[in-house]
Write a structure and sequence with these properties.
It contains seven helices and eleven strands. The protein is an alpha/beta fold and 389 residues long. A hairpin with a 2-residue loop joins strand 1 and strand 2.
Length: 389
């Protein structure tokens, strides 16, 4: 009965509109309920803020300071400024793990046997019997033995891998900050591009997790990858899937970045991750609403679940609704999203549970509308560029 009700609700989303927009935030996918979470569709049934019904961090009980302290200030101002004028290119990923620190398991084996040779640009591999495509990005001047952190980038409903590559300026960012990126293409069998809704089968979820496994395995086979610094970032529908990947393959991930994502309602719930990892949870304020989906409610649900499980949370709240997050380059020579990239590059796998160097102070380049701890961000004020949903 419940699945029938969710199916009807998803059908309504299709009827309301499934055309994507042209913004980085995209036109978010569907959504599904889990125990203890409020729905993403519209608001909670009693109108409460989801953060008031579950454990939430105010920042007062943050883990003890770490010795790896970035420069800057941990306060949130809500304005358009960043916390500093420049962004150092050094970060914690790539530094030696302390003796005895927890490290990730060995990467998964490729389901197809021997990995194909990968190169920058479009690639194809057979994953669990299906031909799947993805874009590989590495620094243009990659050194022969250079070790690279790796991020997976999942696109929004109305977007595609090429759009993510262009809008997020990924090649320029990889050149400046020295990382590798994988931008998957959707299989093409799902209305909402990626599996995350309550009616997506477990088999389909496992198939997409297997695609992640195969891309990771073959990146490690082809490049020198820092397996202690592997992150997943998604936008809208891609964020809704990233929030599921953080559970299904959390043992390999050092962090997740959810840009207008969430859990609960028509989206599968948060059921825990095998690894405690820092998460950046960003949304566009109360107007982050698209195709009958309330991404603010979903992000609140995600935050509450993360805090309850002990994951450090960087909260970022802008005022531009369901549209491209209004990041600004921290300095003229750096890429626009440098502050976002810096988050995962500063959070290697080996940090102790609940630890974040950003608990001490936010580094230069972090937007003023971000803060560590749920409920601590001061929402952005100022003009917005580009149309939203």
């Amino acid at each position: 009965m419940i699945d029938r009700q969710r199916g009807r609700a998803l059908a309504l989303l299709v009827a309301v509109g499934c055309a994507g927009d042209a913004t980085v935030a995209g036109n978010g996918g569907g959504s599904s309920t889990g125990t203890g979470t409020t729905g993403i569709v519209a608001t909670t049934t009693d109108g409460e803020d989801p953060r008031t019904t579950t454990a939430a961090s105010t920042g007062d009980d943050a883990p003890a300071d770490t010795t790896a302290t970035p420069t800057g200030t941990a306060t949130s101002t809500g304005d358009d400024s960043t916390t500093g004028g420049g962004l150092p290119l050094d970060h914690l990923c790539g530094t030696p793990a302390p003796e005895g620190a927890e490290l990730p398991p060995a990467p998964p084996e490729y389901s197809g046997g021997t990995c194909p040779a990968l190169q920058p640009g479009w690639n194809m591999l057979t994953s669990l019997g299906h031909a799947r495509e993805f874009i590989v990005v590495v620094p243009s001047d990659l050194g022969e033995d250079e070790q690279l952190p790796l991020v997976f980038l999942w696109h929004w409903l109305g977007g595609d891998a090429e759009g993510f590559l262009e809008k997020a300026d990924v090649q320029n960012a990889a050149d400046q900050l020295r990382f590798a990126a994988v931008i998957p293409a959707e299989k093409g069998d799902l209305l909402f591009r990626w599996p995350f809704t309550a009616i997506d089968s477990d088999a389909r979820m496992q198939e997409e997790f297997g695609f992640f496994d195969d891309m990771l395995a073959c990146m490690v086979a082809n490049y020198t990858i820092d397996t202690a610094c592997i992150s997943s970032t998604g936008v809208s529908a891609g964020a809704l899937f990233t929030d599921q990947l953080g559970q299904g393959r959390g043992e390999y991930l050092s962090s997740i970045i959810s840009l207008s994502g969430g859990v609960g309602g028509l989206v599968k719930p948060w059921n825990g991750s095998p690894h405690i990892m820092p998460a950046m949870v960003l949304w566009g304020g109360p107007s982050d609403f698209c195709v009958a989906i309330d991404f603010e409610a979903g992000s609140h649900n995600l935050e509450a679940a993360l805090v309850e499980d002990g994951h450090p949370v960087l909260e970022c709240v802008h005022n531009c609704g369901h549209s491209e997050p209004p990041f600004e380059p921290p300095s003229p020579e750096l890429t626009t999203y440098a502050g976002m990239w810096r988050f995962w590059l500063d959070h290697p796998y080996w940090l102790t549970d609940g630890e974040s160097p950003w608990n001490v102070a936010l580094p230069e380049g972090t937007p003023g509308w971000c803060a560590m701890g749920v409920g601590n961000a001061t929402p952005r004020e100022g003009e917005c560029n580009g149309a939203g949903c």
